[in-house]
Amino acid sequence: MIRVAFASDDQAQVNLHFGGGERFVVYDIQPGSAELHGIGEFVPARMKGVNAERRPGEEALPEPEEDPAHPPEDKVAVKIAFLDGCAAVYAASIGVSATKRLMEAGIQPIIVDKGHDILDLLNEVSLALVHGGLGWVTRAVQRRNGDAPGKPKGATIHRLITSVEELD
């Protein structure tokens, strides 16, 4: 079993940027099934500073030096903490800094087209658990230690394909 997160506001499609994402849907995936582990909701990220209200096309003003007594909010740290135990996170986009921090935390960042169906991605991971083909899945399986936290009551369970013959 591996745990995977999806940046999604509708629990059906990957449609959010990682850093600005307000919701992450997390599944425990094993060959042939995926079980909803949980949903994390976050306060919407808002731009701060002198350019927060800048309109497209307007010239950006230089930002003042950061005040060490009031550092900017770290919207990524809380998300990475929530994703602890996940092997990967799928998002419509992920910034360079967030990508580096996810990798340091042992979480594989994966960018897919906005609107990519989560069920299709769950099936892809299920197939990779059985037949390989996704390097990050192979690495995640090799690293896992077998400890899995308890599942919430009434969790959603999907039956997933384990071979292409099941598509007929």
From TrEMBL:
SUPFAM superfamilies: Nitrogenase accessory factor-like. Residues 11-125 form the Dinitrogenase iron-molybdenum cofactor biosynthesis domain. It holds the Pfam family Nitro_FeMo-Co. InterPro entries: Di-Nase_FeMo-co_biosynth, DiNase_FeMo-co_biosyn_sf, NifX-like, NifX/NifY_domain. Keywords: Nitrogen fixation, Plasmid. The keyword Iron does not apply. Belongs to the NifX/NifY family. This is Dinitrogenase iron-molybdenum cofactor biosynthesis domain-containing protein. It comes from Azospirillum baldaniorum. The lineage of its organism: Bacteria, Pseudomonadati, Pseudomonadota, Alphaproteobacteria, Rhodospirillales.
